[in-house]
Amino acid sequence: MKKNLKKIVIFGISDFASQVSFYLKNDSNFEIVAYTVNAEYNTSKTFLGLPVIDFESVVEKYPPTEYAMFIAIGYHKLNSSREAKFNEAKAKGYQLISYICSRNSHWNDLKIGENCFIMEGNIFMQNVKISDNVIINVGNKIGHDSVIEENCFLTSNVMIGGFCTVKKNTFIGMSTIIKDKTIIGERNILGAGSVILKSTKNGTSYLTKSTPLTPDPNNFIQDFI
Question: Is the whole-model pTM more than 0.90?
Answer without folding.
Answer: yes
